[in-house]
Write a structure and sequence with these properties.
This protein is α/β, with parallel strands linked by helices and 84 residues long. It has 3 helices and 5 strands; from the N terminus they run E-H-E-E-H-E-H-E.
């Protein structure tokens, strides 16, 4: 799944609908405007991947997204790969 440039609470519902149950990789490299809703979406994708016995990987996560994960204590739950 490719995240768009904007992933805020306003877009959260539509992004959740596009998530799909078979997402194993999220490309976050386009994110420029986001809030913790982006993190919640990634955590939901992780939950769905785990339910299928898979591991979710997040490519190209912006530093601010990784900081959100640290702030909320969920960084260890997520696999950030190729973060800028």
């Amino acid at each position: 799944m490719q995240l768009p440039a904007t992933a805020t609470l306003a877009e959260a519902s539509s992004l959740l609908q596009t998530l799909g149950d078979d997402t194993d990789v999220i490309d976050a490299s386009a994110l420029t405007s986001f809030d913790t809703s982006a993190l919640a979406l990634i955590l939901e994708a992780r939950r769905r991947a785990q339910a299928r016995g898979k591991r979710l990987v997040v490519h190209g996560a912006p530093p601010k997204l990784i900081e959100f994960a640290k702030l909320y204590g969920v960084e260890e739950l997520l696999s950030f790969d190729n973060a800028p």
